[in-house]
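Submission sheet (multi-component)
Chains listed below:
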Amino acid sequence: MNETIDFTRRMFFSKTVRHLAIGLPVLLAALTLAGADRGGGQRSAPARSVVVDRSSHGSIRHADTHIVQRPVEVRPEPARPVEVHPGPAPRQVVAPRHEVVTHRDVEADVHRPHFWNDFAFHRRLGALPVGFLALQIGGVPYYYNDGIYYQPADNGYEEVYPPVGAEVPEPPDGAIEIDAGGGQVYYYAGGAFYEQQADGGYAIVPTPIGVIVPELPPGAVPITINGSVAYQFNGVDYEPVFVDGVTQYQTFAP
Amino acid sequence: MKDRKPLRIPVPARLRPGLSLAACVLAGLMVLPVRAADDKPVIDPRADELLKRMGDYLGQAQFFSVNAEIWQDVDLSTGQRVQADRTVSLQVRRPDRLHAEVHSTRRNRELLYDGEAITLFNRAENFYGTVHTSGPLDDAMDVASERFGISFPLEDFLRSDPHKDFLAKAASGTDIGPVTVMGVPCEHLAFTQENIDWQVWIEDGPMPVPRKFVITYKDEPDAPQFTAIFSNWDFTTKLPDFVFKFEPPPGAAKIKVHEIRAENQSHETEGK
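Outcome: structure written.
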């Protein structure tokens, strides 16, 4: 009987100790790692704003902040009736890998010229630029080259506003990515807002109202509304507003 | 090749539980000091002393002016990295006055705080906007950043206690040694923290002001840098009220200052 008790005690004790011997260090190590994951290795510091564009201002105080797009209440412009037809096969297509600017630093002053910066409504051309793409939008012929759209005019072509419904293989070079919140992303170039389509292409959508863009469309015309300054482009108004301390432009319906 | 036999040390059965417990305690003790060490920043006392000296000098100055040339890495859409530059001119009068002018080739903007309002002025476009707030400069900077996403230029050096703010998140700090910046003898200090490394060059002698400041954003692709070179420190020229008061120039248009919405604050706890 005593032998049985002694054996049971020995078994219990040795198993417990064995479990402790393995389990305790593992537990302590896990706790340490978990603490590190939570930033346990960092000193506690006063919470700082999370909305200052960290690299623009060179501030240690804002070094841990995020580059945050302002959530805006985006309302689509009243849709214009658009009938999209696939265009004829392009005669000559040059499709370099175009880049989009995912974060445009509003403070750094770097001149970034792009083809579409040079847009001028109704500018006449004798011939289309090399590499143009032919499109049919609502049965109307358009030609496209890197952010600028053309239509036939007397003995040549003229530059026209970006037509809603136009779909191109990729956003124009240097298009600015605009995160409008709620997973809505636009690519903004030459006064047009492109949205990626299910087929992988990028189609011009009606200008979202309420969205903030870092620069005006090329050729936007200054206007005055109720004594306030604004700019107009293709039937949409752009109101200057200080965002992050620098001037940007918010779209609004006239 | 002969298989090696595991080394076995005979241990009396009655000692085994005690040895196992001892192993547990030892393992715990080995782990715990690592945590303690992680919690404490490793700041070279000399670096700390020099940084404090600079912080006290700036924080206790009743007024000062300084210029800075800023170079900032920018990636073009082609992938090429270039440097953008701008100049900053600062006038500070404690406790509640500031005038900053930021100038580059295509932009020219000002930021003024007169103790009652923060005014932003885009001189190139002739736009201005005003935010009403009051209190010492530290409070105005907090309102500007937390409500409007605005960071005052080089604001780390404008706080009332720069030393405290500089080291709030620092993990380590080192005194690299003496160097010259634009011909001025300085002490080069280097610090690390979670997402950035930063360096400051502090002038030797009776006026321990920063002469150069670099932040390396090591959590971003290819670790871009922000560099500021300071010049024309002036602690003697008095700064009257009009320096900080905004008078709209003829034709200036008042525009809105976009306020951060409450929901953005939810990003506060998200880690980067």
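Remark: The CA atoms of residues 62 and 94 of chain B lie 5 Å apart.
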